[in-house]
Amino acid sequence: GHEGPALEAVAASLPTPALAHEADITDDASLERAAAVVRERLGPPYAVVANAGVAEAGPFATSDPADWRRVVDVNLTGSAATARTFLPDLFGTKGYYLQVASLASLAAAPMMSAYCASKAGAESFAHSLRAEVAHRGVDVGIGYLNWIDTAMIRDADRFPVMRELRAHLPWPARRTLTPEQAADRLATAVEQRSAAVYLPRWLRLAQAA
């Protein structure tokens, strides 16, 4: 969920200027309005994190084409639209763009074809973007995250097949981490302008395999 009131409360609690602004990353005009608000209230961004994501679970053969397309529109096309909107600012600030990917970028899972395809695409997009913008002083990082206790993961668990799939994974792979753990790791990646960040750390081994 968007959790707007909770985000506004967090923004209000921070010791530095902050804001919470809802935008639809599948709508270019909505993204441009959000970027304008950020520039007006906070100035040009030095870091942009593309973290929006949705998922649909179930067999591909019986999936709803509109639902499948929406996952790709948000996770892949929306990430590219986010980068396109904010790149002019990052060129000016020589900033950092962090694309949040997933374990699904490294290892596809059954019953999650749209999510896996979109996250693998988002990872490839970030690699391509990194090569294009490095000479402009912009760094691009990729975040590889496993199961995080969010509404998206809890929603996927409503499908019996997904609960069974997770239950039969090896313990490290089925462990669910907290949003606070994810936020801390991503914040460190932004501070260090990391090329890659893994949560949990053993995902680095999955990439090397």
UniProtKB/TrEMBL annotation:
InterPro entries: NAD(P)-bd_dom_sf, Sc_DH/Rdtase_CS, SDR_fam. GO terms for cellular component: membrane. The keyword DNA damage does not apply. PROSITE patterns: ADH_SHORT. Keywords: Oxidoreductase. Belongs to the short-chain dehydrogenases/reductases (SDR) family. This is SDR family NAD(P)-dependent oxidoreductase.
